[in-house]
Amino acid sequence: MTRIPESELILNPDGSIYHLNLLPEDLAPAIITVGDPGRVERVSKYFDEIEVKKQKREFVTHTGRIGNKRLTVLSSGIGTENIDIVLNELDALVNIDFDQRAVRPELTSLNIIRIGTSGSLHAGIPVGSFVASAYGLGLDNLLSYYDYKPNLGEAELTDELKQFMALSVDIPFYAAECSVELMKAIGAGMHQGITLTSAGFYGPQGRVLRAGARYDAQRFQQLAGFSFRKTPVTNFEMETSAIYALSRMLGHRALSTNVILANRASQRFSANPREEMEKLIRTVLERVSDSGLFQ
């Protein structure tokens, strides 16, 4: 049994994991991630009871129950660099024995569902729509630091997109697939597509205020013309690809759902973003409650 040193697995004085400030018993097997710390309470208000409330930095966690199903809602903050922290520490909470500082002999798979906001690249996916991501395309560099091996679908998507991008936007990327089981349970009836995950909100998504961007919005818009197995590139956001890739590496199931607040094609933004997000929260929680995947 290999011991993980203190410099690699960092624990707080109370035994909780360093950034999330959680103990193993604080975590439910079904986890909802949201970017905004303020959105945690907007999810947990639908819980029948709340057992745990903790916060450290941008990481706010509430764990409770809806009926007999135990759920955790956790804020990740913005960006794939935060997802790197969140996914590794969630996995450590269930798959590493903190006392022994060793990987447990029997591993646990978590169900991880993102409830987020996004911008659509298609006029036909208007503001207020829900998108469930079949794949995340990472335009960041996070996975270059991991020994990530794509599955067959991800490899085929990568090959086809490289050919397409040779004629449009030449940007390094990686592809990561969602959990098929969670897509069936949670994403049914939503727009299903390929989600671009960027390393930032402005230049990395082609937005130009005063600082010039290497790739403008029109260059990125060309990617909306790509589809894989009849699944189009649908939207732009900042977390999905990292959630999918790290979840699959660590043996967890993940699905990213987003409400469309901006339509990049029509240049429109939602007039009621809070109400649109509330609809997505209720939809996801209702489907979690009804699904037999969650105990």
Kindly describe this structure.
The structure is a single chain. α2 (80-95) packs parallel to α6. The chain has a single domain (24-290), classed as Rossmann fold (3-Layer(aba) Sandwich), CATH 3.40.50. A five-stranded mixed beta barrel has the order 7-12-10-8-13. The protein has a two-stranded antiparallel sheet with strand order 5-6. It is an alpha/beta fold and 295 residues long. The two termini are 31 Å apart. The protein is globular. It contains seven helices and 14 strands.
Q: What is the number of independent domains?
A: 1
The first-level CATH class is given as Alpha Beta
Give the proportion of residues in helices.
Answer: 25-40%
The sequence of SSEs as H and E is EHEEEHEEEEHEHEHEEHEEH
Number of helices: 7
Low-confidence stretches: none
Q: What strand line-up does the widest sheet have?
A: 7-12-10-8-13
CATH architecture verdict? 3-Layer(aba) Sandwich
Gap between N and C termini: 31 Å
Give the key terms:
single chain, 295 residues, alpha/beta, Rossmann fold, five-stranded mixed barrel, two-stranded antiparallel sheet, 7 helices
Note the topology.
Blueprint: E1 30-34, H1 38-44, E2 49-56, E3 59-66, E4 69-75, H2 80-95, E5 96-97, E6 102-103, E7 111-120, E8 130-138, H3 152-165, E9 174-177, H4 180-186, E10 191-197, H5 217-221, E11 227-228, E12 231-237, H6 240-250, E13 253-263, E14 268-269, H7 273-290
Parallel strand pairs: 1-4, 1-7, 7-13, 8-10, 10-12
Antiparallel strand pairs: 2-3, 3-4, 5-6, 7-12, 8-9, 8-13, 11-12, 13-14
